[in-house]
Design a protein that fits this description.
2 copies of one chain form a homodimer. Chain A is α/β, with parallel strands linked by helices. The first copy, chain A, contains 11 helices and 12 strands. Chain A starts with about 40 loop residues before the first strand and ends with a helix. At the A-B interface, helix 9 and strand 12 of A face helix 9 and strand 12 of B. Chains A, B: It comes from Nocardioides taihuensis.
Chain lengths: ~350, ~350
């Protein structure tokens, strides 16, 4: 039934027929023995995706409005037992995990060593997982799940060693959004002295993207936030050349705000997780410019039809969460910038 | 109520408050008089978007299974009268129109002259339209709607003059997909001797993209089609270096087919309008490569999470239907390639 040769994408652990990718699979093979390019992690904590946890919480709230923590815990155990991975069947989402490297296959390309404390940067939705302690240390409340068990990484998985010099929760919080500054660095570097607008600039991915843009040579950075409270926060952090308030869902308001602050932008980075920001981001960007969509609320057709309807010659990128070296870059940006570090620390 | 100064995006004709872009508006101002940067077109024919027409047809089918053409016609007239544009409220889609330039505002940047026969390449969903003949020459069956009336183009609209040397229906059919070959040309030109895979290669946008890729310097083009019938068609057209059959929704099959034909690809162009092709397109593309998604069935989150889950360092582009000069490029490619021309002509 299973393949004897491993595939870097983890296909050899997919039990579904016809074969699908691990993320799309109903069920993964969680055998403890490793294929030569795999790594096994002793799990210490699961970080459930926020949307997934909220769905579980809603489903298991009593009539009196109390969250039934035992029922939430049982639901998570059932999912992991049935699927061999933590992927909420309703939301489709997973999360990440923290643990210690337990065994490294002889042909693993990940560069990990036994004993390394790591966070996985690929989703739990495609990571083989076995829970061994019945989650007995978790009360079923909150997204942070203390856990004893093991997980398996494939040849093409991504895991980052948690640095010694930072609070582990701070590191995780940075790694969670490290794709955005990495791609921003790459795109801004293609322009000469770019004007860069970041929409949702006081958030985690937004603030790191602002700092990344400046380091990559941006001549002017414009941070767009929704209200005065975030404007004060961002101004206090000192990481944007200009701070402007605009509703990103209002295309005309967003365009006008960015233009008044020195735009239109050569590069616009959308980091705000609300639907309907495509038109404004396109209008705020110059011809020949680039929009990077990092929000999962982005609508593909709204972006494609919006640009066509506006005859806008802009390059639109689907924000890929993976760029080589992304975790190291994001941690370095945080270490080197007191303002962005304060923004992160106040969220812990 | 309305603005006295025009905006190139057409905001001055939006009657909704708060103000939204013309495409999102419930109602446009269809006054006959032009703002200085506008153009008025005498309409000859509407081409309804296929999804929109199918929805109208379904809604107005009698119990006996007959399409009630009068009811379909009445529905279109009602929409245009209520909204000042032809945008199906259910599907959100519009279509395009053909007509003759009737008046050109003194500051129009579109370069059109009175008497030019044109096709609009911006959607009907944002084009002010008045129907003056009650659509009396249309029986309510089919997407081609003979029509007398007028439409207005904005400063940033796009219209292409229909060439004299080609069948007008052939020109329209080419212009309908001209964004794909234009963006393919631009992206392939950034690589040295690229390997280019086109998924859905026997279709309109796919076949033009193959020819565009070759002209832009691709060293090898791979056309992916779903079955033997299309493989024969594509082989007969002689526009792909390699023709392979694969189900684009099966990531492993798509990857393996492209690799066997000389891949992975530096550039993968997705032109097939079925959901679930994101993973395969990513897997079929080399690290450092680019995937251009031209299918409206693309899921933003499937692309973003898919690439991250595969640790794939690929650039993913939202296929923008507008690139300057796109219509001229596509018509030139068609004129210069007998194979692609035959593929288009057999669809008329």
């Amino acid at each position: 039934m299973t393949q004897s040769v491993s595939d870097p994408t983890g296909l050899h652990r997919v039990l579904d027929r016809p074969l699908v990718l691990p993320q799309a699979a109903q069920r993964l093979d969680t055998r403890r023995e490793l294929w030569p390019d795999e790594v096994r992690i002793r799990v210490e904590k699961l970080n459930l995706d926020a949307a997934s946890y909220r769905q579980l919480e809603r489903t298991h709230t009593t009539e009196a409005g109390e969250v039934d923590g035992d029922a939430v815990r049982a639901a998570v155990l059932d999912i992991v037992a049935a699927r061999g991975k933590m992927q909420n069947p309703e939301t489709g989402s997973g999360g990440m995990l923290v643990g210690t490297v337990e065994e490294v296959g002889e042909r693993s390309p990940l560069g990990l060593r036994v004993g390394d404390r790591v966070a996985t940067l690929v989703s739990l939705t495609l990571t083989p997982l076995v829970v061994e302690d019945g989650l007995e240390r978790w009360d079923g409340r909150g997204e942070q799940v203390p856990c004893d068990g093991y997980a398996v990484l494939f040849g093409r998985s991504i895991a980052a060693v948690i640095p010694d010099d930072l609070d582990p929760d701070l590191s995780l919080s940075v790694m969670d959004v490290c794709g955005a500054p990495a791609l921003t660095t790459r795109v801004v570097g293609r322009y000469q002295g770019a004007t860069v607008a970041v929409v949702g600039a006081a958030g985690k991915s937004g603030s790191l993207s602002l700092v990344a843009a400046k380091e990559a040579g941006a001549a002017r950075t414009i941070g767009v936030v929704p209200h005065q409270g975030e404007a004060d926060l961002l101004t206090g952090a000192g990481i944007a050349d200009e701070v402007v308030i605009a509703d990103a869902r209002d295309p005309v308001a967003l365009r006008d705000a960015v233009v008044r602050a020195g735009g239109p932008a050569d590069v616009t980075v959308v980091c705000v997780d609300v639907p309907g920001c495509e038109g404004g981001a396109i209008l705020a960007t110059s011809d020949g410019g680039t929009v990077i969509f990092f929000s999962m609320a982005t609508s593909f057709s709204a972006a494609a039809l919006g640009a066509e309807g506006l005859a806008a010659d802009v390059t639109m990128l689907v924000g890929n969460g993976y760029t080589p070296g992304h975790a190291d870059l994001a941690l370095r940006l945080l270490r080197g910038n007191e303002g962005v570090r304060r923004l992160f620390e106040r969220r812990l």
